[in-house]
Amino acid sequence: MMNLKSNISKIFLFELSQRRAFMPILSIFFLTLPNTTANQIGLYSGIGFIVGFLLEIPSGYISDLIGHKKALIISKVSMILSMLAYVLANNFWMIVLGSSLLSVSIAFMSGTKEAYMHNLLIELKREKDFTKIMSKMSANVSLFAAFLAISLPFFTQINMRLPLFINLGIDVLGLIPLLLLVKPKLKFKAKKDLKQLSKFFKAIKGTGFYSTSIFVGILGGFMIGISGYRFVYLQELGLPVILVGTIMGFSRFIWFALGNNIHHIEKFGIKKILFFEIFLFSASFILAAVLSNPYIVAIMFILINGYFWSRNMLIKSFFLKNFASNPNLKATMLSIKGQVQVIIQAICAFAISFVMIYSYKLGFGLIGVLYFILLLIVFQFIKKKVFVNA
């Protein structure tokens, strides 16, 4: 049992290596390459999101079939290859390759890590602590990511690619704990037939799973889909490049502080939490469009992003409790939820890239208004059926 318990620490180290602390720098680095333009940030992000969309459900089902450990190893290897593409990038298409491989990695990790940990905690008889353990794990990882995000921009003074090389080294080290995972006694694997999958789709039909997935997909899709523009927007407002990583770093400190206590927020109920977020996230986009002081906008981004990521495990915990009708298809279920978000991310990234050519402020403003309208509409469909007791 003690050996099996060590898997929690190994998954923690894996997640530690998966954080993309260099992302604030990537958009700026991209614009230093020959013949690149701002709207291409949305294009390479959108292409990556489409790759993720195409793989999201298949990767979840493959994970349930071959075993979650193998799927996590595939995820890590894809992440290493993604970093190699970024390190060697000298044009738009190499960045597209890196973005696509990044999406492959995320697709195989999405749902798989949570499914693996959920099954592990069942075997350790700690299933009820899932939200608490996973939120604390992500929060503690964010503390490391904070220091990394703050420090990496300083290495750009030596060479713009140096932060990418550092992250590549961390990725290689992150493969080791996955290879050392202790094999559990309980077996959680899907049968190699489509009948089980067909039964699963029938079981979740009519439960509100799809409408709930659309709602949380919009919540996350817009937040992530526009992420590539936050840092170049701050730079345009006048924030020094060397401080860009600080924005991401400080948001991770917020993530750390909230994530270690997010299980206390769970008592308010998922319905109230998500309704509050409609106004919170929409207002953040609109205020970003209205305000011009880079430091005020940066502080807002820090607080909003820190909160957004800290409460992510609450959403996944809710789905595992309410929609995991087949214990052998947990990764598949979470992948279906994730696929909805990925396609919304892709649509958002592609659409907003054409607006950002003319004005970052206009882009953030349009996103904020559209975000608010869509979320209010979808919330009406799910509040009575899904959130009756939430």
Q: Can you put this structure into words, describing what you see?
A:
This protein is mainly α and 390 residues long. It has one domain (2-178, 199-382): Growth Hormone, Chain: A (Up-down Bundle). It has 18 helices and no strands. Helix 3 (39-66) packs antiparallel against helix 4 (68-88), helix 6 runs antiparallel to helix 17 (330-356) and helix 10 (209-225) crosses helix 17 (330-356). The radius of gyration is 20 Å and the shape is globular. The mean pLDDT is 80.
Compact summary:
The protein is mainly alpha-helical and 390 residues long. Helix content is 79%, strand content 0%. The two termini are 34 Å apart.
Topology (elements, then pairings):
Layout: H1 2-18, H2 23-30, H3 39-66, H4 68-88, H5 92-109, H6 112-123, H7 130-155, H8 162-179, H9 194-204, H10 209-225, H11 227-237, H12 244-259, H13 262-265, H14 270-290, H15 294-310, H16 312-323, H17 330-356, H18 360-382
